[in-house]
């Protein structure tokens, strides 16, 4: 595989850092707020949760665009798909299929909303909700697998 130019490698690393920091910080921060801060604390909660959620969504979109670009240029899907499980997509009929790397990018780009499944602290999932009239109901993207691929590309 050819070496990436510095700007692309740096963008991958920056966005993965934001994504992983968000995904792995939410549960401990929620516990902290529940245990230590009684009452409303509106601005504090906005600072801890809303700002970081918006930045994480932006990082997801930037990563998706970069992954699509890299798949077009370097065919990274063929390289990484045999080694990683990127999650699953639930079709409109209720059936589920494994997600391919290019589909991860497509689902993020074409989502109407990004949600998070943080119920398993060591395996966070990015949940993409489709726009109206799509052939899928939701996509569950394994954040750690996507980060591992990006880390390999940015090395």
Question: Can you describe this structure?
Answer:
The protein is of the alpha+beta class. The protein has one domain (6-153). The protein contains five helices and five strands; from the N terminus they run H-H-H-E-E-H-E-E-E-H. It has helices at residues 6-36, 42-74, 76-80, 101-109, 143-153, and strands at 87-91, 96-98, 111-117, 125-130, 136-142. A five-stranded antiparallel beta sheet has the order 2-1-5-4-3. A hairpin with a 7-residue loop joins strand 3 and strand 4. The chain starts with 5 loop residues before the first helix and ends with a helix. The model has no long low-confidence stretch (mean pLDDT 92).
Q: Largest sheet, described in full?
A: 5 strands, antiparallel
Taken together, the total number of domains comes to: 1
What's the alpha carbon Rg, rounded to whole Å?
Answer: 16 Å
**SSE string, helices as H and strands as E:** HHHEEHEEEH
In helices, the fraction of residues equals: 55-70%
| Total count of helical runs of at least 4 residues | 5
Structural class: alpha+beta
Portion in beta strands: 15-25%
Number of separate strands? 5
* Net shape: globular
Mean pLDDT: 92
